């Protein structure tokens, strides 16, 4: 139970798809009952009028049949309801209902019920006025100082104030300079009407001035006739508030002073009778309604303000005293006495959610039972503690709290990728250079066993792939859970058949333990020629221009992938390994394995890191320079403004030239920042591809398990997006330093080292490159990646005596002996095999 949540005393939902506004709610003793209890009167734009008298059996109960005293269909939309002394000859309270073209006054009387349905109300029409103009809102009061009765003033949509003295029409006046109607209120202390015009200013008109001004029926007469028929309508005072007003209210809790409260779109004003500002409050949210309701101390007034964040704020003047959360957005709020409970807050939403609530908390009546004391058996406690610690340790190792079967039974996500491309591409950019960009449809199916309150489906693909829609929300699990489903996209989505190339700058060779497989059977849709002499060579062409060549050895069990760009090798390399594993699984071969016997290409990887870091530093310098030029631009603007405001003309001293030059520099720097951000995004995408390749090669080199590969991916790929505040370099450096300190540490001294808890952009990348090299060195010497702290001791590992280099192609195939002392040159290399990776290079993750 939250302290800052409105306590639901009574609530109900009004009608079906009905609409309400701030004038549709009123609280008053409309049936003139002897106990003085207020009733809730609600009118809707659908024409229904309802009167409630809540009597909940216990707090939080919904509406019962006996709570509804009256429900009647008035056939016309109800714009506003008010209760006052509207009938002559009596001081009893009557109900005034404003329609768009009619004003009706009703007498409401209560009758005691003889059956279980309780009390009822009857409504009788006393009189009505047919309006010649479309009404907007109304106000009432003792206009002109009359005693014992209330007069009604209606504001029309075209700016006319129509005054009714109960059963008779008095006069009508047009407001000067009118454009759109605003809120209307009456001040009995100054005998004046207050409204907020379209000029965003509060205007006050004396009732006497309205009464003696030119009659509205003579507005169309000539100017000479108007001058002779009455006085001109003159405003008493105005105040410019600089925004449109939502509501206006006049309160007076003592006879000495009254206050005018105006609720704006972003500010809350309190004015004196003469239009001077008493105080104002700037609001940090968008208000929806307000109500000044009481004065608890001398000279202060409490105000309720509702907003569009489902919150109700209580202010004492400009000081926030309380904030409470509501289940809906209130458009009208009232305070009254219901069922002998004073200070009940009644709120109404635009869709008919009517709630009576109060602030604070409910008292807790629960008392904990006495626990029978018994002697403690410490031996049993030790045994139980060991069992619980074992269970906790097992759970931490399994990396999950709930069993997988239970989660899959509650909610299951399945993905089906269409085998064919869309006939009409849904890509944002249909062409990349001379290549057409295809699109494919992915069907996601959710199967649930439990009721979902609000399910959110997110789909993620790695750049540069894009989605037409990545967020889905279904309005239909008591425990929050996350289900992931990984799926592979077709390679042809970003890759086309290309011409193979014999020369390339970057090459990678993958060893296997089985006979080579024809590339035509592995990549059936990418064969440019079907000749037998070309089955061991295949070319690929990325959308955008990059070309990759795959060569399969005829005599050895090796595959070579080569390209002009280092980062382009990852996608085809990973796809080749996945397709080889799928091929041998279909053949029933279970001992198939891939390995990598070459040096880890850290030098090429470090070049991409340096380029990415250089763009980050460049972006930081450009932003600092842009900030300096912006400050200079504003300073020149202030200096020019001061010169222009000066009454005595003075020379500008080339300030205009300096302003123009600074403006051009700001525009040029902004373009440079935008260009650098685009280059940084492309560099980060290339860096992620190269990182995937390095992780794949390390996994093949050291025969890492799936869990160890996941640890490497979490350390090297912690961010999906790169920003200036939190970048890839400092995040990866912290993660690798943690691995070197824990599971890959040499001694307990390294484990005792304290790492910096703050992630700041480094001065250079030398420390990061040193840590990456050290990580490969520790893995080569037998280090094991794990998350548990008890596995930090290094393990011994049998090192191979030597490795054989892979020839460039089958035409120049030859054997080269290599000494074991050259094994770790160029950042070390070993031979290893790995199980099948879980994630495809063209992957999508739905959750």
TrEMBL record:
Domain spans labelled PTHB1 C-terminal helix bundle: 704-779
GO cellular component annotations of the record: BBSome; membrane
All copies of domain PTHB1 hairpin, residue ranges: 599-702
Coiled-coil regions, chain positions: 371-398
Region of interest (Disordered), ranges: 810-847
Gene Ontology BP term (one): cilium assembly
Record-annotated PTHB1 N-terminal domain positions: 1-363
Database matches in InterPro entries: PHTB1_N_dom, PTHB1, PTHB1_CtH_dom, PTHB1_hp_dom, PTHB1_pf_dom
Keyword terms: Coiled coil
Every PTHB1 platform domain range: 490-597
Name used for this protein in its record: Bardet-Biedl syndrome 9
Gene from which this protein is expressed: BBS9
């Amino acid at each position: 139970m939250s302290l800052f949540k409105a306590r639901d005393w009574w609530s109900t939902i009004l009608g079906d798809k009905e609409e309400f506004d701030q004038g549709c709610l009123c609280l008053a003793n409309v049936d003139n009952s002897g106990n003085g209890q207020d009733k809730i009167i609600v009118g809707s734009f659908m024409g229904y009028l309802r009167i409630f008298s809540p009597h909940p059996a216990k707090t939080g109960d919904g509406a019962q049949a006996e709570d509804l005293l009256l429900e009647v269909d008035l056939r016309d939309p109800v714009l506003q309801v008010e209760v006052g002394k509207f009938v002559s000859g009596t001081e009893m309270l009557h109900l005034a209902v404003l329609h768009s073209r009619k004003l009706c006054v009703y007498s409401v009387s209560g009758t005691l019920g003889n059956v279980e349905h309780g009390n009822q109300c009857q409504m009788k029409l006393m009189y009505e006025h047919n309006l010649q103009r479309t009404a907007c809102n109304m106000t009432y009061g003792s206009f002109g100082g009359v005693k014992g009765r209330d007069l009604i003033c209606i504001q029309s949509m075209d700016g006319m104030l129509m005054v009714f003295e109960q059963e008779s029409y008095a006069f009508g006046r047009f407001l000067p300079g009118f454009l759109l109607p605003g809120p209307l209120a009456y001040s009995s202390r100054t005998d004046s009407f207050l409204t907020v015009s379209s000029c965003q200013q509060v205007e006050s008109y004396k009732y006497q001035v309205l009464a003696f001004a030119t009659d509205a029926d003579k507005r169309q007469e000539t100017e000479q006739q108007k001058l002779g028929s009455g006085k001109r309508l003159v405003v008493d005072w105005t105040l410019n508030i600089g925004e449109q007003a939502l509501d206006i209210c006049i309160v007076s809790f003592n006879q000495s002073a009254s206050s005018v409260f105006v609720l704006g779109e972003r500010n809350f004003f309190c004015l004196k009778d003469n239009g001077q500002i008493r105080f104002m409050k700037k609001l940090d949210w968008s208000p929806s309604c307000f109500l000044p309701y009481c004065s608890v101390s001398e000279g202060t007034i409490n105000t309720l303000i509702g907003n569009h964040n489902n919150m109700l704020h209580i202010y004492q003047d400009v000081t926030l005293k309380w904030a409470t959360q509501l289940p809906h957005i209130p458009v009208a709020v009232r305070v009254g006495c219901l069922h002998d409970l004073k200070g009940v807050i009644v709120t109404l939403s635009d869709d008919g959610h009517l709630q009576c609530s109060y602030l604070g908390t409910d008292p807790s009546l629960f008392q904990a039972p006495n626990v029978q004391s018994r002697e403690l058996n410490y031996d049993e406690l030790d045994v139980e503690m060991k069992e619980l610690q074992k269970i906790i340790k097992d759970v931490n190792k399994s990396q999950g709290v709930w069993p997988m079967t239970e989660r899959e039974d509650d909610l299951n996500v399945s993905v089906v990728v269409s085998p064919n491309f869309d006939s009409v591409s849904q890509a944002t950019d249909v062409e990349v250079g001379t290549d057409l960009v295809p699109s494919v449809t992915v069907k996601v199916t959710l199967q649930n066993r439990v009721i979902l309150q609000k399910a959110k489906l997110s789909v993620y693909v790695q750049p540069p792939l894009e989605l037409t829609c990545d967020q889905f929300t279904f309005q239909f699990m008591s425990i929050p859970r996350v289900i992931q489903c990984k799926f592979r996209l077709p390679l042809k989505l970003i890759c086309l058949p290309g011409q193979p190339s014999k020369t390339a700058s970057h090459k990678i060779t993958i060893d296997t333990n089985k006979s080579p497989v024809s590339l035509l059977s592995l990549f059936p849709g990418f064969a440019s020629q079907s000749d037998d002499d070309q089955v061991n060579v295949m070319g690929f062409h990325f959308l955008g221009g990059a070309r990759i060549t795959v060569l399969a050895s005829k005599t050895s069990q090796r595959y070579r992938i080569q390209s002009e760009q280092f980062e382009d090798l990852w996608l085809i390399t990973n796809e080749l390994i996945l397709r080889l594993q799928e091929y041998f699984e279909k053949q029933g071969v279970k001992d198939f394995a891939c390995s990598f016997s070459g040096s880890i290409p850290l030098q090429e990887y470090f070049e991409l890191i340096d380029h990415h870091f250089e763009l980050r530093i460049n972006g930081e310098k450009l932003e600092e320079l842009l900030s300096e030029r912006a400050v200079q631009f504003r300073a020149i603007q202030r200096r020019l403004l001061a010169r222009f405001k000066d009454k005595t003309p003075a020379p500008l001293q080339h300030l205009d030239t300096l302003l123009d030059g600074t403006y051009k520099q700001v525009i040029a720097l902004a373009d440079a920042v935008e260009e650098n951000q685009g280059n940084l995004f492309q560099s980060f995408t290339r860096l992620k591809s190269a990182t995937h390749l390095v992780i794949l090669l390390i996994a093949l080199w050291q025969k890492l398990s799936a869990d160890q590969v996941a640890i490497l991916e979490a350390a090297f790929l912690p961010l999906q997006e790169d920003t200036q505040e939190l970048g890839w370099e400092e995040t990866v450096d912290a993660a690798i330093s943690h691995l070197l300190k824990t599971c890959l540490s040499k001694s307990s001294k390294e484990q005792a080292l304290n790492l910096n808890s703050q992630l700041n952009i480094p001065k250079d990348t030398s420390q990061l490159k040193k840590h990456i090299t050290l990580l490969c060195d520790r893995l080569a010497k037998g280090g094991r990646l794990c998350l548990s702290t008890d596995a930090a001791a290094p393990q011994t590992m049998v090192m191979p005596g030597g490795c054989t280099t892979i020839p460039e192609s089958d035409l120049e195939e030859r054997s080269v002996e290599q000494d074991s002392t050259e094994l770790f040159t160029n950042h070390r290399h070993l031979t290893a095999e790995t199980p099948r990776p879980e994630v495809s290079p063209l992957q999508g993750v739905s959750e």
